[in-house]
Specification:
- The chain contains 14 helices and 15 strands.
- The protein is an alpha/beta fold and 428 residues long.
- The protein has three domains: 129 residues, Transcription Regulator spoIIAA (2-Layer Sandwich), CATH 3.30.750; 111 residues, PDZ domain (Pdz3 Domain, Roll), CATH 2.30.42; 156 residues, 2-enoyl-CoA Hydratase, Chain A, domain 1 (Alpha-Beta Complex), CATH 3.90.226.
- A six-stranded mixed sheet has the order 8-9-10-11-12-15, sandwiched between helices.
- The protein is globular and about 70 Å long.
- The protein starts with 38 loop residues before the first helix and ends in a 6-residue tail after the last helix.
Length: 428
């Protein structure tokens, strides 16, 4: 079990691709023999390399992937190469890797290569369903609509058939990751939700109106999509103010609260985290701050020890430490889950929001390698990270459950932050 920060600095649980040796497989390519001629030969070389390297590199491989089934599927894939498209081979490999149910272990979904094509719309799950939340200008009329069907399937039915291709450990991360797959033509074709010509028909709805259909075809990746928030002039909720910042804070004078959004478990090259924390506490001392809100809802991880100056600073200031609220959700993953657990365990912080996308106990400390001919990136784990002895634990559950609906999003409301600001510290 990981030790608290003051006793020993924990080993970082690296969330998403940390490339420590993008692999000797792709280095010094000029010194390697030329790849075999012909598409089939190149794919077979990649598949053989994968078969040799993935089992050797992934921790607990024999426990996670029954060897006979793994080898049989690879043999079938080898045999099927001549009759499959590049995208179909990729999807078969993705499904094999995802079969272990390890969220950090996957074949990265290609974008605009190997025949993969994207829809000109982007989707997002809310607690009450799936919605269109970005689109190219020619499809702007569907922004902010609720998705009733894609092809002949409801979003929930489609999620179930797409799930085997997505590495996940709980429902929250499945939904969080699925939107990229549901906006990929090849994935929809694989499960029967798109036609051979790439046309996809959506059945959509708006409040107070009859459902309608809208058909899209593969989009030009060079055309920028317009966010629904911008097109519909949605008021900018606090959580949307600085989505690209690693970390930032703002005082909420009416609530006498300090809001901290921590979006990446990484150090911003322009602002070291220790300097950020020093400025933050100086600000807190000069203002009537009575509670602190740490927003981890959009943090997919990185290095768990980056947050130490904030954690330690809060612990050394009992007046602040006793009134800390941590916002979590399906986008909270890996090291961000570690941080949320540290804040609750060591400071008694209240967790508000929805269950995390990251598992409490899971494989992590990732590495990756690249298949030389196809360019597919394979991410794998090197360590099992256990934060609790409860082996059945999956998502980190909030102390105060607050779902986020599509109506909330389109009205510019943030019910999770509102609940944290409304909660009475005396009821902890």
């Amino acid at each position: 079990m990981r030790l608290p920060f003051p006793l020993a600095a924990p080993r970082p649980r690296l969330a998403t691709a940390v490339v420590l040796g993008v692999c000797a497989l792709t280095l010094c390519r000029a010194q390697e023999p030329a790849p075999p001629a012909g598409r089939e030969a190149r794919w077979r070389e990649d598949l053989k390399l994968f078969a040799d390297e993935f089992p050797r590199r992934h921790v607990d491989f024999a426990k996670l992937y029954p060897r006979s089934a793994f080898d049989q599927e690879l043999a079938r894939l080898h045999a099927d190469v001549p009759k499959l498209s590049d995208a179909e081979i990729t999807l078969r490999l993705m499904r094999l890797v995802a079969s272990a149910g390890i969220a950090h272990t996957y074949v990265r979904l290609p974008v605009s290569k190997l025949g993969f094509q994207q829809l000109p719309v982007s989707l997002r799950w809310y607690s009450d369903g799936l919605a269109v939340m970005a689109a190219t200008p020619e499809h702007a009329q569907v922004l902010g609509t609720r998705v009733l069907r894609i092809g002949l399937m409801t979003p929930e039915q489609l999620l179930a058939v797409v799930a085997p291709y997505i590495s996940h450990e709980n429902e929250g991360w499945l939904r969080e990751q699925s939107t990229g797959y549901l906006a990929t033509i090849n994935v929809l074709q694989q499960v029967g939700a798109a036609g051979a010509d790439g046309r996809v028909t959506f059945t959509l709805s708006r409040p107070g109106r009859q459902p309608f259909t809208h058909t899209v075809t593969p989009g030009d990746p060079r055309v920028k999509q317009v966010p629904a928030f911008d097109a519909l002039n949605v008021p900018v909720a606090l959580y949307r103010k600085q989505p690209t910042s690693y970390y930032w804070y703002e005082c909420l004078p009416d609530a006498r609260a300090l809001y901290i959004q921590y979006n990446r478990c990484q150090i911003d090259p322009k602002l070291p985290f220790k300097d950020f924390a020093r400025d933050l506490f100086a600000f807190a001392y000069s203002h009537p701050v009575q509670r602190v809100v740490v927003d981890l809802r959009f943090n997919s991880g990185g290095n768990s020890i980056v947050m130490y100056p904030l954690w330690a600073g809060l612990k050394s200031r009992p007046g602040l430490a006793s009134h800390v609220y941590v916002l979590i959700g399906a986008g909270t993953f890996s090291s961000a889950v570690d941080n949320a657990m540290d804040l609750r365990r060591e400071l008694g912080s209240i967790l508000v929001g929805e269950p995390t996308g990251g598992n409490v106990n899971s494989y992590g400390e990732v590495r990756e390698f690249t298949l030389p001919n196809s360019g597919l990136v394979v991410q794998y784990c090197t360590r099992l990270v256990k934060l609790t002895e409860n082996g059945n634990s999956t998502a980190l559950e909030p102390d105060i459950l607050v779902p986020r609906t599509l109506d909330d999003a389109l009205a510019g409301r943030d019910p999770v932050l509102e609940a944290a600001l409304r909660h009475s510290p005396s009821s902890k």
